[in-house]
Amino acid sequence: MSAYRIDLAGTRYRFDSLAEVMACASPARSGDELAGIAAGSAQQRVAARWLLADLPLVLFLEDQLVPYERDEVTRLIIDSHDRAGFAPIAHLTVGGFREWLLDDATDGAALASAAGGITPEMAAAVSKLMRNQDLVIAARKIENVTRFRNTIGLRGRLSTRLQPNHPTDDPQGVAASILDGLLMGSGDAVIGINPATDDLPTIARLLTLLDDLRMGMDMPTQTCVLTHVTNTLALIGAGAPVDLCFQSIAGTQTANRGFGISLALLDEAHDATQALARGTVGQNVMYFETGQGSCLSSNAHHGVDQQTLECRAYAVARRYCPLLVNSVVGFIGPEYLYDGKQILRAALEDHFCGKLLGLPMGLDICYTNHAEADQDDMDTIATMLGVAGVSFIMGVPGADDVMLGYQSTSFHDALYLRSVLGLAPAPEFAAWLERMGLTDPGGKLLRGDPFLASVRSVPALGGLCG
To answer: What is the DSSP letter of 28?
Structure first.
């Protein structure tokens, strides 16, 4: 369609493209305003949503927001579309799709069956019509389970990424943070370090440290140093102990080029990591991170709103059946998500859309120090995501990352969610915590004296135990 029009309350609203309809229908956020594509008024936003609700889902297969000929992510979305999965919902409008998602008769099995037939643009469109509570209740129905050395994403479980970053990659500092996290039951999603440098020998030392700790304590978890995919390929070639392959991804070919990646490179990295066969209960080997605003920050947004582009990144992720997908929701800054309200909305959108598309979604519930947000906002977001069934969150010492310089969630925050919502770690990790004397049979945290006694024999930790 060349233009989209709607008459509402005596005013005719005209939108020149489907991308403009989608952008104007989005809840207000600073990134879309920065890009000059946000609705100019609340009335225009309502008109765009009214118009969007009546558009058929099949339109998103015909009217691509980013041209097929110019973008490999669009080609991936269209060429991999599961028409059989789409068939039960193909007759619906976007508004009808919302009603189907919220219908009590639409259960997790129905959502899983349809996942391959739902494009990122469809997911983004329907989320724009949903209240926060709609995003929670629909996401809660979905269970996307992945496995490597433990099982992540089961209903009633909440995993954590233990994030032991250090500003100089000091092994003792990293080990101290890991010990702190393990004593509080953190680390079942992954023990993952953001390195301060991309120096390959340093990254290899960190990988070896993590592997020695894991094997020394017989931990059923996985480890990762979050370096560029080309570094991981080089480290695999050098025989480093790589469990997971990490990469930041975005929703357009141009933005991914800015990250130094392509689908062909990700294919190579996935195949190389999977060939190591280091998993024990499964072989989901990829770890992806995303964030609303990444395409705009690299001037690669094609006039499309940041939330829709975030959903397109999920199409890249699901190509590789990843173990973990993490939306680092407030990390890019207030230029894209201005305050706690915008971060909350983005977190609920990302979690719902990612799960709807079949992904194991976790969130780094975070903000930068110049955002209009504080830790109370993070508590609210964490609680709502816990209710919505988030697969994992971050465990950062004191919630303050001393290397990356931003505020996230702490080991204590995960304990809070597990306590108030009756959640538990991954089953294999929960059994390990009990076996090591860190929890009682009911999962309650103990002092960990038997654990501390046992880790004195682990060279990297023994000197930290006093």
So the answer is: P
Other residues' Cβ atoms within 10 Å of the Cβ of residue 194: 18
Is residue 359 domain-shared with residue 238, that is, in the same domain?
yes
SS3 content of the chain, % helix, strand, coil (to 5): 50, 15, 40
131: domain CATH number? 1.10.220.70
pTM comes to 0.96
| Per-residue pLDDT tens over the stretch 13-48 | 999 999 999 999 999 999 999 999 999 999 999 999
Residue numbers in the known binding site for adenosylcob(III)alamin are 195, 247, 297, 403
Q: What are phi and psi of 228, to 5 degrees?
A: -65, 150
Residue 198 CB burial class (10 angstroms; 0-12, 13-18, ≥19): exposed
* Residue numbering of the annotated binding site for substrate: 161-163, 194, 289, 364
The answer as to whether 460 is a domain residue is no
Output the six-digit token pair for 68: 């097929």
**Domain count across the chain:** 2
The per-residue pLDDT for 139 is 98
Q: Quickly list H helices, 83-199.
A: 83-86, 94-102, 108-114, 120-127, 132-140, 171-183
Dihedrals φ, ψ of 186, to 5°?
Answer: -100, 155
Q: Which domain, by its residues, includes 39?
A: 4-140
- Which pair of structure tokens corresponds to residue 203? 């990254």
- Tell me whether residue 461 is in a domain: no
Q: Are residues 249 and 181 in the same domain?
A: yes
CATH code, 330: 3.20.20.70
| Residue 439 DSSP one-character state | B
Domain end among 92, 116, 140: 140
Binding-site annotation, residues: 161-163, 194-195, 247, 289, 297, 364, 403
**Rounded to 5°, angle at Cα 144 from 359 and 391:** 85
**φ/ψ (deg, to 5) at 293:** 110, -10
Give the model's confidence band at 50: pLDDT under 50 very low, under 70 low, under 90 confident, else very high: very high
Dig out the tokens for 87 from the structure.
């068939």
pLDDT per residue as tens digits for the range 407-438: 999 999 999 999 999 999 999 999 999 999 99
Asked whether residue 462 is assigned to any structural domain, the reply reads no
Cβ–Cβ contacts within 10 Å for residue 119, how many? 24
Instruction: Kindly state whether residue 221 falls inside one of the protein's structural domains.
Output: yes
- Residue 214 and residue 359 in one domain: yes
The pLDDT-based confidence of 465 (bands split at 50, 70, 90) is low
Residues 277 and 406 in one domain: yes
Cα separation, 141 vs 148, whole angstroms? 23
Per DSSP bridges, beta strands 400-401 and 406-407 are: antiparallel
